[in-house]
Amino acid sequence: MLALLAGAVVSLAFTLFLTPLFIRLFRRLQWGQFIRDDGPVTHHAKRGTPTMGGVVIILASVVGYFVGHLTGGLTLTPSGLLVLFLMVGLGLVGFTDDFLKTRHQRSLGLGGWAKIAGQVLVATVFALLSLQFPKQLVKDRPSVTPASTAVSLLRDVLPNGSTLNFVLLFGSVAGTLVFIVWIWAIVTATSNGVNVADGLDGLATGASIFAIGSYVVMGFWQSNQSCGNSDLLPINEFKCYAVRDPLDLAIVAACITGALIGFLWWNTSPAQLFMGDTGSLALGGALAALAVFSRTELLLVFTGGLFVIVTGSVILQRAYFKITHGKRIFLMSPLHHHFELKGWAEVTVVVRFWIIAGLSAAAGVGLFYLEWITRTS
Questions:
Q1: Contact (Cβ atoms closer than 8 angstroms) between residue 53 and residue 273
Q2: Is residue 146 part of a domain?
Q3: Does residue 364 sit within a domain?
Q4: Under a CB-based contact definition with an 8 Å cutoff, are residues 242 and 227 in contact?
Q5: Residue 276 within any structural domain of the chain
Q6: What is the pTM of this model?
Q7: Sequence-separated (6 or more) residues with CB below 8 Å from residue 191
Q8: Residue-wise pLDDT tens digits, 173-211
C-alpha cells in the first residue's frame, strides 16, 4: 500500500509542479499545436498552444513507479515494467507523429498506415515478452505469465469451467501467432480510441483518469484475492485470481492516474498544454496492457466506454457517408465535435462526457466485483 500511495503522490506532484517548466521548454522549441481548418471555428484560437504534453505524463508515471517501489521496498515485476514498456513505446510513435506535425505545420504527421505499423511493431514485442517470465503462484499448479493466451472478460476461466485459449485451439506456434494478432487488435483499438477522444481541453485526460483508475481498484482486489495467497486455498480456490503481479498492476495504474490528475490542472479549459498523440497513444497502450495483464480485456468495453463511444461515432459517420453517398449522421465526428456544432460550450461537452466515462468505468468495476461474489465458494 505504501508503494502505491507514494508512487501516485510523486507522479501527481511531478505533473502538477513541473508542467510549467515543460510548457516554457516546449514554447522555446516551438512545439505548438496545429489546428485543422475544417474543425470547429472556436478551436482556431488554440493554434500554437504547446503540445506533446504526453512526455510529462510518461516521465511522471515512470518516476513515480520507481520511487514508489524504492519507498515501499518492493521488487520490480515484469508486469509493471511491461505496462510501462508499452506506454513508452506507443508514446514514441505518438511523439514522432507530433514532431512531424509541428515541424511541417500541418495536421498530418505520420501517415495512417505508418502509425499503425509503429503500433503493431511495439505491440508485437510486448506480446512476445508478455508470455515470458513464468511464476508459480500455487505449489503443484501451472505457472502463470504476465499475459495468457486466453480471451478473457473477467478472468481466463469462465464460471462453467470452459475457456477460449488460442494455444489449446490452434497449437503452440499457431496459437501464439493468433495471440499476437489479438494483442494487435486490443492495442491499436485502445490507443486509437484514446487518440480520437483527445479533441477537447481535458476530455481524454479526465476520461483516462476514470478508465485507468478503475484498474487501481481491480488490481488491489486481485492482489487480496490472489491464488498465491495461501489463506484463500483451498476454500476459495474457485474465486481466486491467477494473475501474476496484481499489486504491481495497481501500483503502475495509480502512478499513471496520479500523473493524469496533476496534468489535468494544466490541460483543463483553456488548456495551457495538450497531451498530443504522444500522450493519447501512450495512455491507450497503458490501458490495453492493464486490461490484458489483469485478464479483463473484454471489460475494456466498459472501463474505456467513452473511448468506445467516440470511436464508434467516427466509424458510423464514415460508413453512413459512403453508403448514402455523402449524407451524415452527425454534424461532425468524433461525437464531441457534433455537440460543439450544436451550440454546446466546450466545457459543457467535456464535463458531460466525463460523467459518461465515470459511469462506464464504475459499471466495469461493478461487473468485475459482481462476478466474484456470484461464484460459488
A1: yes
A2: yes
A3: no
A4: yes
A5: yes
A6: 0.94
A7: 90, 119, 280, 281, 282, 283, 284, 285, 288
A8: 999 999 999 999 999 999 999 999 998 999 999 999 999
